[in-house]
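User: Hey, quick favor. My workstation is busy. Could you predict this chain's structure for me?
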Amino acid sequence: MSLFHLLSVSASGLEAQRRRAEVLTENLANAETTRTSQGGPYRRKDVIFESAKAEQPFQAMFQTELGSGVEGVRVAEVVEDQREPERRYVPGHPDADANGYVAFPRINPAEDMVDLLNTTRGYQSNIAAMSAVKDMIQRSLDLLR
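Assistant: No problem, here it is.
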C-alpha cells in the first residue's frame, strides 16, 4: 500500500465525519421546530457509514502497481427517525391541537452534543493521520535528495 492510499483513506474519513457533523448540527438547530414544509415537527436524522473503496490517485494509469482493495468510509445513507413525536402540553402555541398538545421532535440535545464531540475527534484523528503521512512523504523526499 502506498502512502497516497493512506491519504485517500483519511480523506474519505474526513468527508464522512464532515457530513455527520452537518446532520448533527441540523438536528440541534431544529430541536424545537414544530412545523416543517413537509408538515409536522422536524424529524431527527442519523448518518449511517459503510466501508467503500477509497479513491486512488492515478488509478487508471498505475492500477497494477498501486494494487486494489484499499477501503475507506462513506456515508451510506441519512435516515430519519420514524418514532412518534414527543407531545407537550402548550395550549397557547400556534401548532397546538384541540387538546393543547404540540408535537415536538424527539431530539436530545445532550446526546447530539456528545455525538458531535465524537465526530470532531474522529475528524481530528483523520487530520492527524494525514499529517503523519505527509511527514513520511516529506522525509522520503528528503532521503532521495
